[in-house]
Fold this protein.
Amino acid sequence: MRASLLVLSLLLTGCELVDQRTVARWFGSPRQAPSEADLAGATLPERPLVTIRFDTPDIDYRPVLAEAAQAALARKQDAVFDVVTPVPSAQPAAAQDAFVRRGTADARAVADALATEGVPPGQIRLGLRGDPGSPAREVRVYVR
């Protein structure tokens, strides 16, 4: 019994409990509208590798995402995938907050799908990006 607890503790070393505080640290507090600094992401390529629209129910984006991710990894094994949710920066705080909440869940689902396809978690980054227009409910995947 003691040996199995020791093995379990060694396996969990470096793991982090994911709770509301962790999510708030990763994505910012969902109760606050994101600032311009939060929305401004890293310099990204001009065009995304894949744009996944979530305005159609039950869309199966996984086959296209898997094919695109495998092609990107074949070209560059250490490719970094930026999974970005556009947030309407010109909208009121409540609308931005709704986009952040919904977009965070959408981006997490896309990141999980990438990980399922063999992309190492250290090569997947989640983020928000300000969009002065009225973006659709979508997630954009950029590769660098």
In short: Strands lie at 50-53, 81-88, 124-131, 138-143. Residues 29-143 form a domain with the 60s Ribosomal Protein L30; Chain: A; fold (CATH 3.30.1330.60). The chain has a mean pLDDT of 79. The radius of gyration is 17 Å.
